[in-house]
């Protein structure tokens, strides 16, 4: 068994990693690190994990506790993995923070508004979207797993850009996320009273995921995220001017025909289809009246948008079955 350490195990993504790894045939959780949670029992933060990790407590960060671990997952706030990466050494490392996702320190500083402390290490990370970078991930020691919104939007758009059926200028991504996308610590905008029965846009014109979507798709993107009154899920609806009549559904179906976690179908997908799984559900249409293409993706932000994708990357890096430990079926209703 591969022994894994999780940094940020007390957070929402950390909890989802622990849940999925509890049923993984080739990877065991060896260490679960917290920050303010250090020393406290795992079930105090993740009661749903009581049977799997009932007698566990979160560790305080201490790099010597990585001894004996072959693999490290980090689900920390942005900026934190830059400080820890040296301690991880040459272990396999899957980082979900944004620190090493973008190609340049300048892009990171532009969109995240803070200085990048380790630009020297940017090129040592591979962007962890397996459907587009599988061979590079297999050869990598360090992977920067994508953000949740960019995963959904890029899966919907990239094959259409590559097929040349959409214009790459002014692509519109309207996406809605469940509240778990904002993490475990509630803020004024994510408490029940602010979210229940409500629907709102935020981050207009400046959401940091715009940079990632542009990097992956090669298109110029205008992205508007929305907060939806649900725990999990992302629905990304993407619009682009067509270069002419095409069959975008057939293009997506062909692009993902061999992909174990991507389903392309006629019916507009719903977030619940993906809930609890590592699946992505896609559809697309060409509209002759407006000469526009619309492409839609539904994922679980904690699944294919976070923990599931991290495990998919780790499976590839370790030469395990890519689907090991990862559900392809969602929880419904
Ligand atoms: N939630 C989602 O759907 C997605 C999240 N992400 C990204 O993944 C990362 C984790 O997200 P999420 O789990 O939602 O966040 P949470 O806020 O739920 O969890 C954050 C985790 O980081 C730990 N932590 C906080 N500050 C520090 C610090 N200074 N040093 C070390 N550890 C610290 C927390 O520890 P403690 O609680 O013990 O203080 C906790 O375990 C973020 O970068 C997020 O942007 C990416 C894709 C999707
Ligand atoms: C609903 C909600 O607040 N979502 C978060 C997305 C968090 C996330 O995925 O952040 P990174 O991918 O950059 O790590 C947001 O919009 O900031």
Automatic annotation (TrEMBL):
It is found in: Cytoplasm. Keywords: Amino-acid biosynthesis, Arginine biosynthesis, Cytoplasm, NADP, Oxidoreductase. It catalyses: N-acetyl-L-glutamate 5-semialdehyde + phosphate + NADP(+) = N-acetyl-L-glutamyl 5-phosphate + NADPH + H(+). Pathway: Amino-acid biosynthesis; L-arginine biosynthesis; N(2)-acetyl-L-ornithine from L-glutamate: step 3/4. It comes from the Bacteria. Its EC number is 1.2.1.38. It holds the Pfam family Semialdhyde_dh. Residues 3-140 form the Semialdehyde dehydrogenase NAD-binding domain. The active site is at residue 148. PROSITE patterns: ARGC. Belongs to the NAGSA dehydrogenase family. Type 1 subfamily. NCBIfam families: argC. Catalyzes the NADPH-dependent reduction of N-acetyl-5-glutamyl phosphate to yield N-acetyl-L-glutamate 5-semialdehyde. This is N-acetyl-gamma-glutamyl-phosphate reductase. The lineage of its organism: Bacteria, Pseudomonadati, Pseudomonadota, Alphaproteobacteria, Sphingomonadales.
